[in-house]
Fold:
Amino acid sequence: MSMEAIHIMTTCTNRKKLPVSRQLRLSNVQGRDIPARAQQWIRRLETTSQPRRAARDLYAGELWAGALQLAPRAASQGLAPKEWVLSAGYGLISPDALLLPYGATFSPNSDDSVGRGASRPDAEREWWRQLAAWDGPKTGAPRTIEELARRSPQAKIMVVAAPPYVQAIADDLVAARENLSDSGGLLIVTSRLTIPDALADCLVVTEQALAHRLGGSCIGLNVRVAGDILDNIHRRPLNAPKLRAHYRRLAQSTPKKARLDKPKATDADVARFLRLRRKVEATASRSRLHTEFRKQFQCSQERFKTVFDREVSRGRI
Structure:
């Protein structure tokens, strides 16, 4: 009996194990026209002479460590997983693709954000299309999720990503779903977002209360929910509406933690805290810093991550 195939897609991370040169930071690629800016970026990726490293060995951090465990967890349940990375710098890639360390993200409010200064509201989706039209770092590898669905229409597709990344690849996801033999074969694990109607019933929403049930902080919650789905696949099959209902019930049944009357943090509060803490402990992880910060202020993990990434990109921490 053949094992059921599943494509597991997680996002790139801001943290890299090699230093990112100024040349390969998107903030240093000028222009408001997305196609022209994308072509400048691709030329830099093709012509820059620096050491390259496999994606699985380039990305770093808690989120990436959890993402790398999803395929083994799927395999332990009798599935045949194939790993993919949704990269704002390279497009759709395998973890074995050789990459340059780079700075590019779909997350807003970062100096290296794809949408920074763009002249069109669909900048991130157009950027994804431009990267997909490029051959990429690995010759002959699929460049779109739609292509994966055409090649293996019987396979399941699990996307584990934050809302900005899901928004950027939404058109590709719609096209992929149309090529799957089972329209229910697409599963999108993310937090709340506005999404095309064609994908609404594919969502499994990760609510903050689930962090208490599954352990850990809110950072990496999407990955932990995906892992829980895979670990329990024989009890709860890959059916997005049923899984969505299950995790909603789980979140609603979680007792609310008593909240202290803490002030809401501003971006300046977060930046000031990060600079002071990193002077004392240069290797302190973002996850631990966020936990410490929330003892004094109210601050969501998404906002903390945005400021953290901005401070890193500017070389302040």
The CA atoms of residues 167 and 194 lie 8 Å apart. The longest strand covers residues 80-87.
